[in-house]
Design brief:
mainly alpha; single chain; about 220 residues
Length: about 220
Amino acid sequence: TFGTSLSACEKGRQWREALAMLGDMLLRSVSRSTVTCSAAVSACEKGDQWWAALDLLSEMQCQHVECNTVTCSAAVSACRKQWQRGLLLLADTRVRRVARNAFTFGAAVSACEKGQQWLLAWTLLEGMDKARVPRSSPVCNAAISACEKARQWSRGLQLLGAMRARRIPRDVITYNAAVSACEKGRQWRTAPAWTRSHTPRPLAHAREAPSGGRACAS
């Protein structure tokens, strides 16, 4: 079936084949569904083809095919290198009354991280709280990384403290981003003391901590 084939294209990141298959459905007068279109959008997302994902969303709207959380989340994720478009899509989900989850917000936060928009990433975390969407480790990690890239070390540590208070799991990515933020902020005294009291057990036995070492060398 078309649904199975499109799902295979999605998993294989074959976005061209997915678009061709949707065109074939149109020629054969086979109705597109939310599932088939979502698979195609996801294939475009995995293939870093944000423009194709946005075109599909427009086609779905014109053909009155419902967009769900999966569709919109994949489209926002496709715009991870286009943070302005990603935020516009996130706002559009609210207009369309599409439920947003941690993945939807996470894709937008990740786009802000890559665009070095730490304040917008911070605002999105607050938006998650207002929407009653629980923060996840990947979302918080992306926000801390956004602060790190913008040399906002104090904000990064503040986010880390919030993760601890909310009992959100922290991992190597979390701590590396926070230590790197201290490094870039030339907080060489803060990083070593902070890592001794916050480093998770898996890192306690590590032979070396490159980011922390660079912070001390500043």
